[in-house]
Amino acid sequence: MAKEQLIVVGAGVAGCAAALEAAQLGLKVTLIDEHPQGLQAMSLDAPYFYGARLAAVLDDAATIGERVLGANEPLLECLEAGVEILTGTCIWGSYRPGANSTHLAAPQLGLADGERSWLIEYDHLILAPGSRDLVLSFPGWQLPGVLGANGAAALLDRYQALSGSRMVILGSGNIALRTAKLALEKGVTVAALVEAAPAIRGDAALAAELAQAGVSFHTGHTIERALGEQEVCAVRLVAVDAATNPVRDSAQEIACDTVCMAFGAVPNVELASLTGCRIAFDAARGGWAPVLDASFRSSIANVYVAGDGAGVAEPMHLDPGIAAEQGRRAARAVAAAEGRNVAAEGEALAVAGGDSVLAAAGHWLRSLVKAGGMDVVVCQCEDVTRRELLEVSPPKYLNAGNLKSCGGVGALPPASRNSQDILKRMTRAGMGHCQGKRCRDQVLLLLAEAAGTPPAALVPGSYRAPVRALPLSVLWAGEETDEMRRTWPIWLHPVDEGAPGYASAKAMESGRGEG
Amino acid sequence: MEKADAVVIGAGIMGLSAGYWLAQRGAKVIVLDKGRVAWEASGRATGFLSLRGEQPLEAPLAAAAETLWSTLDERLGYPTEWLPGGRLWVALEPDRLAELRDICPQWQAAGIPVQLLDGAGARAIAPCLSEQTLGGLHTTRGGHANPQRASQAFAWAFRDSGGAIREQTPALGITVAGGKVRAVQTPNGSISTPVVINCAGPQVGLIAAMVGVTVPLAPVRLEAMVTVPLPRLFDVAMVGHGLSLRQTRRGNIHFNGGPHEWVDVDLTGEPAKPGTPVIRNIARRLAELFPSLANTPVLRSWSGVLEVTPDQTCIIERLAAPDGMIIATASGHGFGLAPSIGQAICDLALDGRSQVPIDGLGLDRFAKLDPGWRALRRWTAGSYNT
Ligand SMILES: Cc1cc2nc3c(=O)[nH]c(=O)nc-3n(C[C@H](O)[C@H](O)[C@H](O)COP(=O)(O)OP(=O)(O)OC[C@H]3O[C@@H](n4cnc5c(N)ncnc54)[C@H](O)[C@@H]3O)c2cc1C
């Protein structure tokens, strides 16, 4: 198996800066990025909420490849600096030798492109996977035309494939303002920018600039529903008071073909979590984020996390320099570990503050619940509503209406009640083909509210390989040895003849089955 | 000191089932777990009930479980996703087919109707099977359920009948006096009880050791996976090509098999349950078995740690000394047998003997077991695959 000195995952700002710095310090670097993604991967809303209306051009791999790679200046710089680059390649697994997995020779990553999967070992790993869209639901959110801010940015910018021309943006933090600016630059009309709170949350100067450009701000409003039959044609907004109660007769409709959920972004910790890095709640960094030292080293000595994946603070949405510097620091720490002569770092980078994205999202969610009610779907894949989630109802396909109600979230014993996984097992919210990317945060916020617990006290759902849904034929171990085929164990091992308690050794040998 | 008629150690499906049957008979029962309800093997199993045709000592327990499974949803009041779809073993290779021919008479001898099929016969039951399927062995008996939902159904029904579940409360010790168990010690104090039921899964040996009793057990880590939901393809629990698999009521193919790692467990910690890249080989086997499903996406994988006894057969016993101590472990097929094993435990606790036949499942069968048995079999922690 190939072994790399340094693997950097993610060719965004932080990943490219890390790869370039490491290459310039003389390290052998491999930089891996899942973009350009295939249409099938994008239609699973991973890693972003792209929504259900992807432009036809996305089917044209050559055009998209050119656009996505051509738009990435820093990636081209990395290429010139001798970084080995793998694009269109996702990391779906991360494995390390350790307790109860002692036979793995070295830490390794699982990679896949559209056709096959393979494994690589590494000495050092820098994860720079960026952020994920924080998604909250409202009636009509399943309609084509509804997407997330990260999804919108990717389609507008890198893929140049947003099939829409009139956008309503939900949220007013920096990610919302930035998306509005990008949309305007790309010729998309921003029909409204909506904020449930009484005031704009993000950068005042940028908000003023957008207002100048004609964007109308609807603070103290929430979305009652997205309207449309086949796809979005308008949104219905309603005014809300400071306690998020809808104001009577305040509904208004705004025509649009795109609704962008820019409630916030949270660090994409799936790979850090699979790798075994310690994750802890940190409100200022967007919720559950890896625990890192000043060099962005995780709880595992040779694994680093930089950029939005390390934690998303509000200022980072407007200043890519922060993520880049994090990447460079991680790269210098790796170089130092490899014996390169690296100048001592200056002061530790401050984790820039700003209010918690989860607190803002919590406010939004309360307004959405009041305007839309409890019978709004939270998990699109498995068709679970807010009410079904909190009542811990069995899924609809069981037709278990004649059976008992378990008494809801509140009736679970305290440790089960705090566990997103237990809720997921019982309701299936988060078990579907998007692997929970669209419902994870809303489920946690609803659970926190219902259980009367701060989010920090909840145990978020675990991440499982493959973190991208991969076809059997892709995951398929192509290099499987004859030896493995021959010795593939059939549950369990045959046991020696004469072991006590056997009717006969033969009977046990054929006692295969369970497991 | 808090008092109970019985304390169950372990909120896996076996302990919850035992607690449920006891509470049904009016006993005041507390179930302890060091972690969460069904967080270990019981929430990670494939979900088969095997009729144990190859093990005459267990076949009666399995038959009793089968009868119970068909009534559980109504009895417990919560869905278990029980699907009485029978079982199909399939062979893609001549050696495997020969083995199926060998086990056929054992199952018949156990009174379970089984039928040898050719490849076409097997594909008639599961049309997605590879055209290379050489044959199969089929029984309409047995079935499968959703391990997480079934375990939780027992937990809720236990609670509904007055039982108490204490999560994150490990049993740390057992007080014995005058040859009888008296109390279970936990970090939150002791619970006074005349009956202690040890259903601690892989930790059964560690709990038994608290009262000076040796239970030979080797824990093992296994991996399992699930695909996206598919339209209904088959109802049987299937075994073949190195996998165990079923299609869930939701439609996902849930499959597992392959190399497993022997591990050690400790009394209070959550055992590490890392996945490994072997899921690629497991996935390959599913695609070889069902070539037409090769483009089906895999959604997730997980692993679980379970208990294995030296003869891969259950241990169910009420000890003579100390009195009041009951031991129950099921060697990797405890999910399917849990309904009847729970009843047996309840009988042992309240009546001293079980109506459900458990003869021959006691510890005395290991009297001559070499204390170094794990090493002799290469079942010690870190051994892998062979
Ligand atoms: C991948 C996989 C597939 C399987 N497939 C099948 C199948 O198809 N059919 C089948 O019948 N079986 C199957 N099994 C086996 C089955 O899961 C187990 O036999 C069964 O779940 C055992 O139940 P249990 O309650 O005894 O143990 P567990 O579910 O392991 O529960 C034991 C509990 O005891 C608790 N505990 C341990 N120590 C302490 C302590 N000191 N204090 C308090 N609590 C403690 C643990 O936290 C745990 O919750 C499979 C297992 C795995 C992992």
TrEMBL record, chain B:
List the InterPro entries.
Answer: FAD-dep_OxRdtase, FAD/NAD-bd_sf, Rhodanese-like_dom
User: What Pfam family is a match for this entry?
Assistant: DAO
Q: Which GO terms describe its cellular component?
A: cytoplasm
Tree of life domain: Bacteria
Question: TM spans, by residue?
Answer: 6-23
Picking any one GO molecular function of the record gives:
oxidoreductase activity
Annotated coiled-coil segments of the chain: none
Alphabetical UniProt keywords: Membrane, Oxidoreductase, Transmembrane, Transmembrane helix
**Rhodanese domain mapped to chain residues:** 12-48
Q: What is this protein called?
A: FAD-binding oxidoreductase
Name the source organism. Hypericibacter adhaerens
